[in-house]
Specification:
Helicase, Ruva Protein, domain 3, alpha+beta, 10 strands, binds zinc ion, 300 residues, N-terminal domain of MutM-like DNA repair proteins, four-stranded antiparallel β-sheet, 2 domains
């Protein structure tokens, strides 16, 4: 069984460049992270908001799993943890979805291509089926970088993430910036600094605040730090209102896609015209990540 799952893993990894595989080996998210377009805070928040009303109060009657990439341990053990349990709430912790049960939590990370769908027909990419006392919840994931696990509390690697990007107070954000000598873009990507920020919303927040992605956090004036805080919150809230950015195959639990990608000012707009100054949007690789910015509008 183990050998078979190893064999199935190879084609998944082969489709990525070597530096991506190196990242997977070093990644703090137990190699289940991704360096590509993935659901970020607004997408996960959108999924949580669409799942919570339908899942809360439901009892999980039966759970079936079919991928050891997504469910690392024994399928039987995970099923026995969740079967018969009632869902008390669904919340977001950074980019993790936390389903609170009578006993412990079911923790879901969507990885790159994970989707939670209600009452959908199981397909070739269905990795988990939760039969509920009313309806069915499916977990679909073509690339299988997502993860489903059970834990009595939040697992240590999830709990030790930094404060939530949407929940942090301005003064605390400024305090964190003052302590870090890192460049802003890689710092935003560091989940131990803030949890939930990712590539798209880091680029968009830095553009809105007119701060260069290479700017050193500790050197930002308090005024620019406050502007960055407001930009980050504004960008995240606007994205949640648009149900996130539909990139890759992200959809919410009703199968609806988001529309924030139409409001991107810099992300994915390399070579296009800056809406603010008429200059040209540039893309550079910073901390291993494609970074989009306007060299005229954004100052170090
Ligand atoms: Zn510009």
């Amino acid at each position: 069984m183990e050998a078979r799952s190893q064999l199935r893993h190879r084609p998944v990894l082969r489709s990525f460049p070597p530096q991506y595989i190196m990242h997977l080996l070093r990644c703090p998210f137990a190699g289940r992270c991704y360096k590509r377009r993935v659901p970020e805070l607004p997408e996960v928040e959108t999924v949580v908001r669409s799942v919570a009303p339908r899942l809360t109060g439901r009892r999980i009657v039966r759970a079936q799993f079919s991928s050891h990439h997504v469910v690392p341990g024994s399928f039987k053990r995970l099923a026995s943890r969740v079967e018969g349990q009632t869902v008390h709430g669904v919340t977001r912790h950074g980019k993790f979805i936390v389903v609170e049960l009578d006993r412990g939590n079911l923790i879901i990370h969507l990885g790159m291509t994970g989707r939670l769908l209600f009452d959908a027909v199981p397909g070739p990419h269905t990795r988990a089926i939760f039969e509920l006392d009313e309806g069915t919840l499916l977990y679909d994931d073509p690339r299988q970088f997502g993860r489903i696990e059970w834990a009595p509390e939040l697992p240590a690697r999830v709990a030790r993430l930094g404060p939530d990007a949407l929940g942090i107070a301005e003064a605390d954000f400024l305090g964190l910036l003052a302590k870090r000598r890192a460049r802003m873009k890689p710092l935003f990507m560091d989940q131990s600094f803030l949890r939930g920020m990712g590539n798209i919303y880091s680029d968009e927040a830095l553009f809105q605040a007119a701060i260069h992605p290479r700017a050193i956090a500790a050197r930002l004036s308090p005024e620019r730090g406050r502007r960055l805080y407001r930009a980050m919150i504004d960008v995240l809230q606007a994205a949640i209102e648009s149900k996130g950015s539909s990139i890759s195959n992200y959809v919410d639990a009703e199968g609806r896609s988001g529309s924030f990608q139409h409001q991107h000012q810099v992300y994915g707009r390399e070579g296009e015209t800056c809406n603010r100054c008429g200059g040209t949007i540039r893309r550079v690789v910073l901390g291993g990540r494609g970074t989009h910015y306007c060299p005229k509008c954004q100052r170090p």
